């Protein structure tokens, strides 16, 4: 570690050129090849997947919903506009049929639904066909129009990372105020920007060889920018401390590499291990998010140990080294906490409990299209369908099967008691289809109950091989698949993180208490998201939030405990070590958390709901973790545990001796 950092410092020009060449080459390759993001979720054992396979022979069927702003749509000017739109839809590539206008008509005769049938499934038609459909729907010639279906769902806007610049600007202000040095502002931000830019290019290239959802780039940018500034700041802070102690730039950087650099490596590995836990869910969709985020974290950590020392070389001797006048304040806080650990522990747990309380109302599920970005064709379709045909019009259940005979009619009669059901439709190869329209909205729990009862009746009354598909069914199966694997995911992430902390700090209690505190933070974070957004919450969001915050919280845990352990090894007094460690790291941890929170909160204003949820959740997580957990709860619990913190099988006794410069 020290050798790598020192070499990068001595060969600054070479390292900077190599990074810039890598960035330019990766970005050029990504621009040349383009992106191939896919939001498909593969659930081979799901009932909705079996239904989709039976329907695949019919090709994609998209519903185009159209409303006339000034009178009836089945006569006069409205009908003329509808006929023109139907003709343009029929002329699209791969379209084999369009329902004759006016198609399905609402009671007020102002809203019509045209079914557009394609010659292949949506997954085979690709993004180009989806974009062509969206362009035609948006140009509806004076009509308000939207589209509902798998192709329409593929037309979500491309990730917009413009808000990240606002977050970085705010982070720069915090760095300037906290450290009073332009160098401390520019170096971490430049390091994070170059490494995250490279990571996003790598993610774009990887989208051609593995399933990468569109939000992968925003997730990678969100985590990469946050931890990238933090990692660079950790190394830079320790370097400045060495320079204030009188060391030459090279020697100060070597000490920083051996201490903070080691912490950066471990923190980065822990984040990646936590993200890798998402692989236990067994969904390629989540694997893509995990890989994208891990690549971003790894590159930012590597940049903090290579690019940052190179950028530091030209300004090493001119950097402002004003003393840390606020260390005494952090020392006073730490002395107060260690003197009265009980009240501080109670107060910290009370804050966590209040934030976690809304978690009792957590309901997992994929939000319906009515929560899509304003102006999207899917949201427009959902609003028009609800207005013209009722809340369940955008949540059809597609009951399909083979055989059955007269039992299909009996099934329809049974389902009519709780939903609106169209007449049976014959499918190629002897299959049949019943379209069930719920009387409640897609996100209503009653619709979920209807789905469950429909599946039971389809097999008992219809035929043993009957299956229920459609968007609502696929979303329910997606939620169920993730929920079923959550225990394995949680055990994997927590277990591996505990083992890593135990190996690094040679302690049994420190990693166990860290795991418990991270679980408390996870509960508080989930509660904050539920309070801010209500429900349902995307089923994969708690998985990502838990993996992300469990890894990110380890950044502060490692930085704080490393400082405390370093002091303890010098004099063997746990309470004094806690005071010294908090005094040495408190300002950096809180400043780093504020910087990370500013980057995260900038993503809370994008169009994609799940990214907004992630931005809010991670903002709450890092602030709570840094301010309440690491600076209050951890010192209080460690003070209560005393010497037991450092127990580890076969550990040698600490060498006693007062720490020089102790802040007791």
Short description:
The chain has 21 helices and ten strands.
Structure overview:
This protein is 64% helix and 7% strand. It has 664 residues and is α+β, with helices and mostly antiparallel strands. The chain has 4 domains: 47-153, Multidrug efflux transporter AcrB pore domain like (Alpha-Beta Plaits); 162-323, no CATH class; 328-373 and 488-664, Multidrug efflux transporter AcrB transmembrane fold; 397-469, Alpha-Beta Plaits, CATH 3.30.70.260. Residues 653-664 have low confidence and may be disordered. This is MMPL family transporter. Keywords: Cell membrane, Membrane, Transmembrane, Transmembrane helix. The chain crosses the membrane at residues 161-179, 186-207, 219-236, 264-285, 291-312, 344-366, 486-505, 512-534, 540-564, 584-606, 618-643.
List the helices and strands and how they pair.
Blueprint: H1 2-10, H2 12-33, H3 47-55, E1 61-67, H4 76-90, E2 95-98, E3 104-105, E4 111-118, H5 122-138, E5 144-148, H6 150-153, H7 162-179, H8 182-206, H9 216-244, H10 249-276, H11 284-312, H12 327-339, H13 341-356, H14 377-389, E6 397-402, H15 407-415, E7 420-421, E8 425-427, E9 431-437, H16 445-462, E10 467-469, H17 471-505, H18 509-533, H19 541-571, H20 574-601, H21 609-641
Antiparallel strand pairs: 1-4, 1-5, 2-4, 3-4, 6-9, 6-10, 7-9, 8-9
Helix pairs in contact: 1-10, 1-11, 2-8, 2-11, 7-8, 7-20, 8-9, 8-11, 9-10, 9-11, 9-19, 9-20, 10-11, 10-17, 10-19, 12-20, 12-21, 13-18, 13-21, 15-16, 17-18, 17-19, 18-19, 18-21, 19-20, 19-21, 20-21
